[in-house]
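Incident review: delayed structure delivery

Summary: a single-chain prediction request sat in the queue longer than the usual turnaround. Root cause was a stuck worker, restarted by the on-call engineer. No data loss occurred. The affected request and its eventual output are reproduced below so the record is complete for anyone auditing the incident later.

Affected input:
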Amino acid sequence: MKTRSKLSRNLWVLVWLSVALLQAWNHFRDKPAAPRPVHDGSFVALKHAHLVDDSGNDGDSFKIAHDGGEHVLRLYFVDCPEKRHYELVKNRLKDQAGYFGGLSIPQTVATGMEAKAFTEKLLREQRFMIQTRWEHVYDSARSYALVFFDDGEELSEKLVKAGLCRIHTKGTVMPDGQREFDFENRLRSLESEAKAAQRGAWGKPKRAPSKAKP
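Output delivered after worker restart:
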């Protein structure tokens, strides 16, 4: 009888452990990506979305949760420096370093980390609305998007003003009908102000130019 009772208790312990593990797995597993509508050219507003902590997040690309699913979005108009240095992005990092007037690669990566922190802070602490047309970023699962805050500014404007990105990627007509060219000109104006004020990457010391050999 004692043996049967002990086996019964052990069985119940195993059952409860299995239930607990299943609940823990269900809690921590990634939520399924919400189905992405077919791109028809019109903007869709995603309200009440929130940032999802993800290792892939950076200054211009991040995961959000909305309506029970998750999406990875990529900003129009701007490109933030890479947040780490590896073989696949070494040429992109060189281009990014050159754009800011000749930063070192470590400085460029540091700017990428600053951009990531800047974007994540905004998305965690301020209310925002996403506008997307579900346009694919090349052949990836990411979609191009715009992010507007209560002050009326779009995230790319804030990044440019902070000196944490270059104006370098696909643009778009804006949801209010503003032409792509006109919005990009606004970004160029904001970039000139950031340069003059030495904000972000523009204020980092540049590498000394190499002297020509006699």
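Verification: The domain at 33-202 is CATH 2.40.50.90 (OB fold (Dihydrolipoamide Acetyltransferase, E2P)).
Action items: add queue-age alerting; document worker restart procedure.
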